[in-house]
Specification:
The complex is a heterodimer of chains A (112) and B (114). Chain A is mainly beta. In chain A, 0% of the residues lie in helices and 59% in strands. Chain A contains no helices and eleven strands. Chain B has 114 residues and is an all-beta fold. Classes of the chains: A mainly beta (112), B mainly beta (114).
Chain lengths: 112, 114
């Protein structure tokens, strides 16, 4: 079976750093994605990990440990516009195809 | 703007009816994915097409069907609608190259079944 767990809600302060964790149990793993979704809008791609380690992309970084079935998304220098839902998703299948299995998402609220 | 288009944006219909949702992928993308997002279920994968052929299936109900046409646009057909089918339906597309191959999501169709 497939199971992806993330915290439901998190709160952080503007300018701070926040880490959103994701654990997964799945077969046929072929990469882990992080998406950002504002309410009522489409998910937008943030980062992708297929090998262990840290991927940095501006204020956002994502880490993966395949042996532990664990990932985190790190957001630095938080801004009010970062208030959104953050979705962890595991991809199954080949590199050209493959469905995404999403976690329930973590709603992040950034406070002044 | 992801380059993926979906129509209509909103759809209100009654129980028992049938609707068709349409998706045009990004130029050059061969894969189309359909997802359902309801408040209590999160984003759920429904089905994937690749260059006109069904490639992967999720927990898609038998009342739902999809197809991808030669011009690569896709349609999701929902029939015998129930109240519980009310949700946001997203289409996503991805390219054919290896490596990253992220999925780009369209703006979604909000379906309300009354």
């Amino acid at each position: 079976g497939q199971n992806i767990d993330q915290p439901t809600e998190m709160t952080a302060t503007e300018g701070a750093i926040v880490q959103i964790n994701c654990t997964y149990q799945t077969s046929g793993f072929n990469g882990l994605f992080w998406y950002q979704q504002h309410a009522g809008e489409a998910p937008t791609f943030l980062s992708y990990n297929v090998l262990d380690g840290l991927e940095e992309k501006g204020r956002f970084s994502s880490f993966l440990s395949r042996s532990k079935g664990y990932s985190y998304l790190l957001l630095k220098e938080l801004q009010m516009k970062d208030s959104a839902s953050y979705l962890c998703a595991v991809r199954h299948g080949s590199s050209n195809t493959g469905k995404l299995i999403f976690g329930q998402g973590t709603t992040l609220q950034v406070k002044p | 703007d992801s380059g993926v288009t979906q129509t209509p944006k909103h759809l209100i219909t009654a129980t028992g009816q049938r609707v068709t949702l349409r998706c045009s992928p990004r130029s050059g993308d061969l894969s189309v994915y359909w997802y359902q997002q309801s408040l209590d279920q999160g984003l759920q994968f429904l089905i994937q097409y690749y260059n006109g052929e069904e490639r992967a299936k999720g927990n898609i109900l038998e009342r739902f069907s999809a197809q991808q046409f030669p011009d690569l646009h896709s349609e999701l057909n929902l029939s015998s609608l129930e109240l519980g089918d009310s949700a946001l339906y997203f289409c996503a597309s991805s390219g054919t190259s290896g490596g990253l191959n992220e999925q780009f999501f369209g703006p979604g169709t909000r379906l309300t079944v009354l």
